[in-house]
Amino acid sequence: MKPFTESMLNQCRKYMFNFFDYLPTKYQASARDWQVRKFVWAFKDGKCAVSAAQLVAKKIREQFGTSASDMVFVCIPASSQRKNEIRYREFSEEVARLSGAVNGYSHITVEGERLAIHESKSGKHVNDVQVINFDKEFFKDKKVLVFDDVITRGYSYARFACHLESFGASVIGGMFLAKTLFV
């Protein structure tokens, strides 16, 4: 397991919200667990961006009210620019439209490709490198709400949030479709 720095731990102490509990496929699942799995998988494939955006935007409005218009909504990038576009372009636009938040999607791009975490445990070896490009000036002095589809331990979220804050952003917390359960 990768070590958390104190700054990363501080990110995990901020506002964190997940809509569902996600049971990994190595565990026997109930009908509800399968519903959640299928929703998360469909989201990752860009097949339910609008319904997921409605869910997220509603929670943003409930949690932040009119101050949502003072924050930037940004997603932790997927493993490639192509997957990032499929997963987050329409979703981010819709979340911003429905919540009043500023859409940060176009201010982060992905170069190269990395294996998704669930793929890297299979023993595959790759030499590809993923580079995430940030519009640093855009994020300076902005309040940012970070989104990711699934949070497991919080390492990716915390590292991404710390990176945003290194540009002068103020990360207010994170929202996630689902949180991995450990049985």
UniProtKB/TrEMBL annotation:
InterPro entries per record: PRTase-like, PRTase_dom
Keywords of the record: Glycosyltransferase, Transferase
GO molecular function, one term: glycosyltransferase activity
Coiled-coil intervals: none
CDD domains: PRTases_typeI
Name this protein carries in UniProt: Phosphoribosyltransferase
Organism: Bacteroides gallinaceum
